[in-house]
Request: fold
Amino acid sequence: MSWFDYLPACILNHSPEIIAAFEMDFLRNLPAFQRALPQGEKFTMLLQLGWSAELPEVANELQTRLAEAKNAFPEARFIILANAPGEVEIIKGFNEVYLASHNAFLDPSRYPLSKVGKRKFDALYIARITPFKRHDLAVKVKNLHLIGSYSNQEKEYFEQTIAKFPHAVWSQKVPSFFIGRKICEAACGLALSAVEGAMFSCGEYSLCGVPVVNTRNLGGRDTLLPEFACRYADDTAESVAENVQYLVDNPIEPMEIRNGFLKLAEPQKMLVQDLVDSIAGKKIKLPHKLNIRCRLLPHTRLIHGIRRK
Reply:
């Protein structure tokens, strides 16, 4: 039985039922969830945001599709976990919402701590090679490691983009359990998109004690970034390269970065922990990434997954 046999969601608790999913993974697959979940089912659905709801078109789609979901499951309680304060202000007009970045649910034990000293790479960018990730802004970084695949529909874009990086090392894929080791090889991580969600790799950089060269953006990745470990670059390749060089020349103690991230993440994680515990009536262990958007071991998938029907 493969993971394709399961819907993109995780059951955090069976009785009462608490389910976690990314908002559009659930809302755009509503008919499949209707087939898989019993009619009249009472459950609590925690919905994380995968894209910035500060964009009107995203917030409008979220509101419309949520209304459809509430009609399909009138006994259910839907809770949005937002990545940015601005999203909370927008969403609270039409649904229950809390500020709880999806990066707050990264398991720190999965990420080794880097060491101060010369690194193998000046910068690392973990990002699918697609236009919104704006790889062009990294072309002037001299010693660069790119990690990220591409979709078959964007193969031409990938080939055009990767050709601009003859000086860089490109890895199409790194297993999730080893990604921390690769992060620790770099003096800094890159976060270059103008719009997306909270960007898991941004939280992973911080947990490994690696600072970030960031651009101004919507989506919430700034929410848990320690200010002292983040350099904001202009939207130019020159500015990105200059800020990378600054972090190469001025290293920051890795443990300070990790602790800074955890200090920001803990209140958001505890808010959700307390919420889930109050609904379940007992202590619930919140798994890495809430067991969504990540590969699960077969027994975990069997216990916590929702089978397609």
Observations:
- The mean pLDDT is 96.
- The longest helix spans residues 254-280.
- The first strand starts at residue 10 and ends at 14.
